[in-house]
Task: structure prediction
Amino acid sequence: MAKKLEVKNLRISFRTPGGKVQAVRGINFDLETGETLAIVGESGSGKSVTSKAILGILAGNSIVEGGEILYDGMDLLKISENEYYKIRGDKIAMIFQDPLSSLNPIMRIGKQLTEAMLLKGRARQRASRDAFNTLLRRLNQTMVRVSAEGDPEKAKELTKMCEDFDKFEFKHIALEKAFNTARDAANETIAELENILFLIEKNAFENPVRRLREEMNIAVKAIHPYVVSDEDAETLRAEAARVKAAAHTAAKTKEYGEICVSLGRIKGILEAAVAKEEPNFFSQGYYLTFSGQPLPDLPVHELNRVLHEYLDEHFMLHFIDYVEASLRYSAQIHDGAKQMVCAKLNAAIDFFGNMSETDDDRDRARAIRAQLGDAVRTSVDPLEIHSDSIAMTFSSSLKDAITVYFGGTKKNITERKRAAKEQAKFDRYTEKKGRRPDWTPMPPALVDMDLARENIVGLCKRLLAHYGDVLQASPNRDFRKEAIAIIDYLKENASGVVNHLTRRMAKQRALKLMDEVGIPEPRKRYRQYPFEFSGGMRQRIVIAIALAADPGMLICDEPTTALDVTIQSQILELINRLKAERHLSIIFITHDLGVVANMADKIAVMYAGKIVEYGTSNEVFYSPAHPYTWALLSSMPDLDTNERLEAIPGTPPNMIYPPKGDAFADRNRYAMKIDFEQEPPMFRISDTHFAATWLLHPDAPKVTPPTIVTERIARMKERSKQEDAGEENN
Result:
């Protein structure tokens, strides 16, 4: 499977009055497409901080001290807020622990569901228009540079070709917009008629005159050559007029028989209309703009084929040839620029790796950064559909890293002076009073200069490796395929301009979402307030809001903690079902290891800002290796455990002063001397299973997990065998 998310050496701290809290200390994990990763640990272990860093919503006192969060090739720690706006909600959504904190208590549920859809819809339209205009302009400039070769007439011809593309795309947009309006009216009316027929059956139909006339006015908007046309259009108009004429009388007599018959006919016409094949408006746009002829009278399938051939013959194949030549030329020019960048990066790595903290080296580092920034900007191919985020963020990231390094010298001097002053004050008080004061001098918050230098070198090495991969793959690029992808990208953004979401459309989508997440009677509950829902139902609403923009990745931050066991199970089943149906990638954060037993593909166990064990669900549950994982399993209730559950002794360490060795050592009954002196590395148990404990060292004594854990593992294995045998028998 493809990697959806990669977190590499992420380090995050927080400024507090008591000092710098080191919340996340160099964690690494990845999430593959369609996979669920559970991050498990006690409160304060760094789970939620990690999730908020992914979504770009860290608190203002946070300090991202290093690392990368790579999502679809972008480093989320380096992109701008404008770029994050396109990702947050649209591609990555989040479900928080307390649903009430995510809902506005004085706003109806329906409005909370639709407002985000409408705002995102308008933002997508603007983004689509900008993307179309920018790429077409760059394409025109490159085509003229490559194919005109100083020939003014040829340059005019190529410019006109791009102008023609823009012109018939405008026609395409107009045609598609009219079609979308009609089809959306049909879909909206079908849904509303189903509701009206249900209410009539239950004798609960209110405001019938207004509702029926309103729906009939919308129904006739579905009349369109490719939606409701010809005889069906006449029938629809007649039935709609019949319903409006009979509405007043039916409202008085409560006799809706004839109206129900008409509504059924209208519903049947509209259902048949929305099932029709969609025309190719892209080809139609060109034909109607330049052929000077009306559209051929053909079935939609045959018409699409004929118009596609016409477009290819008269325009598109020639246009693709020029696009392909432009891409090939642009790639050649920018590959050369990338090679120059690689040479500069090698020289920069040599300097940065050995630089000192002098003013001369500071000035030289800034000069190298400026030169590299200019070179990298020149190496970025403007015809790339998706911008190279590693290259685009390199200059600003390098500038920040250099600032941290050379600013660290002054900061360390200041911090040492402050710490020495506090210590002297502490000593004077102790000497004078004969007892220790009730406060402790705060140690200096020093910048690790070696680490700061490594971060600078790491940025250069990362771009060097990235450009090396790009240059290695360049000879095998299929420029014809990329040219067609550019055309598709332009078409997609042109369509995005006309995909206007109305409030009625948003309401229909919201009702479908409410039904999808298991909220009964969605039309009734749509107008209710959050306080009118139970805790489980409120969490379902929050899930529906998270799914409103159809994201590809979902972060669940302890979504079942505030719920009772029965409702927890229902919410977990819902998340599992949505994952399968929507092909979601999920990060599930919890303090309860038992919650994720039947839903996680991989598990990362976190403690004191570090991942102490990482593996597949089976590996962590059936072969746990870290004493902290044993402790979590020992405290996990189940129906078969007769022994008293074991609480984890002690409390997590103060992360202003992280322990020197293994952070879990003070609470670990199996701790050895080395655990208090040296932090354990991540030992490899298998290709997918790792744990950071000295117990895995070859020279460590052999330790058996607690009896409660071994017995539980034995029961789980036996139950799994029985279930497998039952499935085979069935």
